[in-house]
Design brief:
Distance between the termini: 68 Å
Largest sheet: none
Strand content: under 5%
Structural class: mainly alpha
Oligomer: single chain
Number of helices: 5
Length: 85
């Protein structure tokens, strides 16, 4: 009986943790991937999912890695930004 209780508790914990990660809305797209270090450095407190991370990155554009800047310029609201220059 104890083993079944432990397994049920472990399953509930795993579901709660995975649900929490999904609720945060952490992205897996180009900006999230290529800007991972920049997000950690400049935007760790920004909420995912409402454009706050992207807005934060835009505010720190001068300090961002080249790969991150390119991701911002070629995806979402920044798509085609370099074509206008």
């Amino acid at each position: 009986m104890k083993r079944a209780t432990i397994l049920a508790a472990a399953a509930a914990l795993a579901a709660a943790v995975s649900g929490s990660v999904l609720a945060q809305g952490a992205g897996t797209g180009p900006v999230a991937t290529l800007c991972k270090e920049d997000i950690a450095k400049y935007c760790a407190d920004a909420s995912h999912g409402a454009g706050q991370v992207r807005g934060c990155l835009e505010q720190h554009r001068a300090q961002l890695s080249a790969a991150c800047t390119k991701a911002l310029d070629t995806t979402g609201p920044g798509r085609g930004r370099n074509k206008m220059k």
